[in-house]
């Protein structure tokens, strides 16, 4: 199957949100502030060259949002529509994000994966992302609309 990739723009928001909504794992990772149109627009303005979408037949079937703080890169969202998995799309998106981050001087990248998402954890392990056991991830919501997590 033929597909292309492109940089994500805010014009892609509705299609990307529909993609995220196609999987339970993606839906539970979203919050109503950061993943709103305004939140994603702010993210894309800050990271215009590190977020990519995969297009097939004019439809977004995969997306990765990655960015950095000038020191470390982070992959915030990676999603491929369930009908198009196991075709190398996710691996290609990760490679593109890593390359874009390196071009911006970033040498280390991390991502967050739910512990119970076995499929995703296996995928990330195959991409060379190791689990850090010497850190605690701490989270504080400064907006009552954003869940803290468990």
Can you tag this structure with a few keywords?
five-stranded mixed beta sheet, alpha+beta, 20% strand, single chain, 32% helix, 150 residues, Aminopeptidase, 5 helices
What percentage of the residues does DSSP assign to strands (E)? 15-25%
Order of helices and strands: EHHHEEEHEH
Radius of gyration: 15 Å
Helix content: 25-40%
Q: What would you note in describing this structure?
A:
The protein is of the alpha+beta class. The chain has one domain: Aminopeptidase. A five-stranded mixed sheet has the order 1-2-3-4-5.
Write the layout of secondary structure elements.
Elements: E1 4-7, H1 13-20, H2 24-29, H3 37-46, E2 52-56, E3 59-68, E4 73-80, H4 89-103, E5 109-111, H5 118-126
Parallel strand pairs: 4-5
Antiparallel strand pairs: 1-2, 2-3, 3-4
